[in-house]
Amino acid sequence: MAICPLGRASVLLGLVACFAVFVAAQDTPRMHPLTNLPPGGEISTGYFFPDYPTRQFIAGEPVKVVLGIRNEASEDYNISMIMGSLNSAQEFRSYYWNFTQQVYFQVVEPSKELSVEYAFLPPRDLPPNDYQVALTVFYEAADGFKSTTFFNQTITVLEKGQLIDWKLLFLYVIFVSVVFAGAYFAWSSVKESTVYKNVVGKKARKVEAVRPDGDDEWVKGTPYDNFRKKKAAAASKGSPKKVQ
Ligand SMILES: *[C@@H]1O[C@H](CO)[C@@H](O)[C@H](O)[C@H]1NC(C)=O
Ligand SMILES: *[C@@H]1O[C@H](CO)[C@@H](O)[C@H](O)[C@H]1NC(C)=O
Ligand SMILES: *[C@@H]1O[C@H](CO)[C@@H](O)[C@H](O)[C@H]1NC(C)=O
Question: Membrane-spanning regions, if any (predicted)?
Fold first, then answer.
C-alpha cells in the first residue's frame, strides 16, 4: 500500500516529462538558425577584413568582412545569407550577441566564384576583451539548405579611442620586469661567488695600495722612484717663475 503514492508520483513525473518533450519538439522548427546548423556543402571559402587586418575591432564600429566563395559542387548553389555570433573566447557555447543576418540570394554555378560583403557590429557597450566570432554562410541546393562556418576565431574588441593594446603593453611590462629581475639575480649570484670575489678582491686591494701616492716609503729604490725624482728635478729647473 505504501508503494502506491510513489507509483502515482512517478506516473505524474512521466507525464510531465512527456509534456516537456512534446513542448520541446513543438519548439524545434522555430529554433534559431545558428543553433542547429544545416550540413556543410562543397564550397571553398576565403575571407579578409579590409579595415581591421589585425582583427582588433572597436566596440560600436561596424566591421566589414569580404567573403570569397567557390562552388566546388556539380550543382548550383543559391547563396542565401550570412549570420554570425559573438561568443565567449573561453566557452564557445555561451554567446553574447547574434549579429544581424544579411540576405544575398545570389546563385553561384559549379566551378564559379562569388564575392560578398558582410558587416557586423560589435555592440557599443561591449567590454574590451577577447571574444570568439563565428560567421556562417547559408546556401540552398536542390536538396535543401547547407551551411559553412567560414570564420570561427578569437578576436579582440577594443574601446573606441583605445588605440594602445593595454593587454599587450602589460605583457611587455611583465616581460621587461622578468628580464631585469633575472639580470639582477644573475648579478647577485655572480657577486657572491668566490671566483668573482677573488678577481675583484685582488683588484680592490691593489687600488688601496696605490692610494697613498705621496708616501715615498714603498717606492724607494724602484724604477718609479727614480723616474719621479727626475721629473721633479726637471720641473723645478724648467719653471723660472718659481720663487725660492
Ligand atoms: C542567438 O543565437 C543562438 C544560437 O547561437 C540562439 O540560441 C539564440 O536564441 C539567439 N538569440 C537571439 C536573441 O536571437
Ligand atoms: C534563391 O533563393 C531565394 C530564396 O529561396 C529565391 O527567392 C530566389 O529565386 C533564388 N534564386 C534563384 C536564382 O534561384
Ligand atoms: C567554433 O569553434 C568552437 C571551438 O573553438 C567550436 O566549439 C564551435 O562548435 C565552432 N562553431 C561553429 C559554428 O563551427
Answer: 169-187
Domain boundaries, the chain: 43-158, 163-212
Phi-psi region of 234 (alpha: psi -120 to 50; beta: other; left: phi over 0): alpha
**Ligand nearest, relative to CA of residue 105:** 2
CATH class of 43-158: mainly beta
In short, whether 135's Cβ falls inside 6 Å of ligand 3 is: no
> What does the pLDDT read at residue 10?
54
pLDDT at 198: 74
Q: Point out the residues of the chain with pLDDT beneath 50.
A: 1-6, 11-12, 15-16, 18-29, 239, 241-244
What percent helix, strand, coil does the chain show, rounded to 5? 35, 35, 30
Atom of ligand 3 nearest to the CA of 134: 13
Q: Is the CB of 92 under 6 A from ligand 3?
A: yes
Instruction: Specify whether the backbone of 12 is left (phi greater than 0), alpha (psi in -120 to 50) or beta.
Output: alpha
Instruction: Please give the pLDDT value at position 130.
Output: 94
Looking at residue 201, its pLDDT comes to 64
Cβ of 89 below 6 Å from ligand 2: no
